[in-house]
Amino acid sequence: MTGSEPTIADAAINREAPVAIHAQISERIRNRIARGEWPAHYRLKSEPEIAADLGVSRGTVRRALATLIEEGLLRQVRGRGTFVTSMTFEPSIAQRLSTLSEDFSAQGILFDTSVLFHGLVAPPQPVAALLDLPVSGTVFQLDRLRSTGGSAVTLLGNFVRSDLVPGIDDFDFAGASLFGTLEGHYGLKIGTARRTFSAEAATEAVAEALAVPVGAPVQYLQQVTYLTDGRPIEYSDVWIQSERLKVTSLLSRR
Amino acid sequence: MTGSEPTIADAAINREAPVAIHAQISERIRNRIARGEWPAHYRLKSEPEIAADLGVSRGTVRRALATLIEEGLLRQVRGRGTFVTSMTFEPSIAQRLSTLSEDFSAQGILFDTSVLFHGLVAPPQPVAALLDLPVSGTVFQLDRLRSTGGSAVTLLGNFVRSDLVPGIDDFDFAGASLFGTLEGHYGLKIGTARRTFSAEAATEAVAEALAVPVGAPVQYLQQVTYLTDGRPIEYSDVWIQSERLKVTSLLSRR
């Protein structure tokens, strides 16, 4: 082991110290993470390897890791190992047709939703075309802002074909989820979606909502959602505050 | 049919005109697309529906569509229908562990690769950690610029564990693909990757490479690739010119 290696065995464990050995180990790991030597998604060696490197028992290593998992600094993924946690939220919306609210809930992240606008409107021309609607028809427009820990992370603008969801404007989408309502209340079978990701400069409206400077880079996502019978049901524009929320894909080669 | 509906049957086909009927139909569709009334990804009605709307034969419709497919304005997807083509390239790298060069090739897009830097270097600290390497080790660094039609679309910075790829610096990556070389020449079994997407402001180096203003929003993608045995093999930073290339996912709900 050389001093330049990012290992936790670069100094011997102090068996005479008043601090328990497992606490010495967790403190070392905590420091590696704090110094950025072990970045987000860094995978730690296995418990037996760490135990052998340090000359301690596996149980001691397990206890040290458990402390850090409880603190939210490490995360264990079955069959893959122990990883340094990312400090930003990482929904997997690039990969599965889940919604941000579902991803937040699955990760145990608390979020607030505020409804900025809701109502039946004439669809903008490109939205009408993508939803197979006449522009003389109406769509249900829903503009929402999602925040976590008091900070805005996403601005969502949805357009839903109103002919398929009579009375939808009576729901309170500060509490209810849009996809949940479409599926649960209206019995619509959501099948597929097409999501396109790009980086955009924040317009005045987006900048104000996400509390970033006008022109700041924001992650933009455009989506068209189709029912299982192929009819388009929903179009959305989503702007994401990239510093607080990064979209992630775990991909397989074969 | 009202004049405000985005249909192609808003004026009667002129059967006396010197222009063939199929050419009149393709010209109408061309105009819809040019005016933005039928945006990228808009799905056209089926051939029988269009034929009925216009009072022409299916064969005439098919001929009109064939012209536009040849011009690259429409695209037919088996089992899904006929769509307006996107004028930007849309790789599905958010969804599959394909590489940009594979996606370009699959879509028949010609691209040029220029190698900006290659060589064995000491890994930056976070890269070393993510690749399970000592910083005293070396990685193969490869910086490339991909262009299509003479315009830069992506700047790629790869770091490969050099211990697993002896002699890799002798390859000419202006022609060879990196993943192809890892798999084909070195017999490495690439298993999974983790890709994270965010919007970033172009740094001076990125701006110069992609020919955008400093601070302009660029799509940033960070990737760590693992072999099937779980060892990390490659880390990369990718910056994408969002106006010319949009990352796409086709997702299923169940």
Automatic annotation (TrEMBL), chains A, B:
Q: Where is the HTH gntR-type domain?
A: 19-87
One example of a Gene Ontology biological process annotation? negative regulation of DNA-templated transcription
What keywords would UniProt list here? Answer: DNA-binding, Transcription, Transcription regulation
Q: What SMART domains does the database record attribute to this sequence?
A: HTH_GNTR, UTRA
Q: Which domain of life is it from?
A: Bacteria
The record ties this protein, via PANTHER family, to: MANNOSYL-D-GLYCERATE TRANSPORT/METABOLISM SYSTEM REPRESSOR MNGR-RELATED, MANNOSYL-D-GLYCERATE TRANSPORT_METABOLISM SYSTEM REPRESSOR MNGR-RELATED
Q: Which GO terms describe its molecular function?
A: DNA binding; DNA-binding transcription factor activity
Q: Which organism is it from?
A: Herbiconiux oxytropis
Q: What is this protein called?
A: GntR family transcriptional regulator
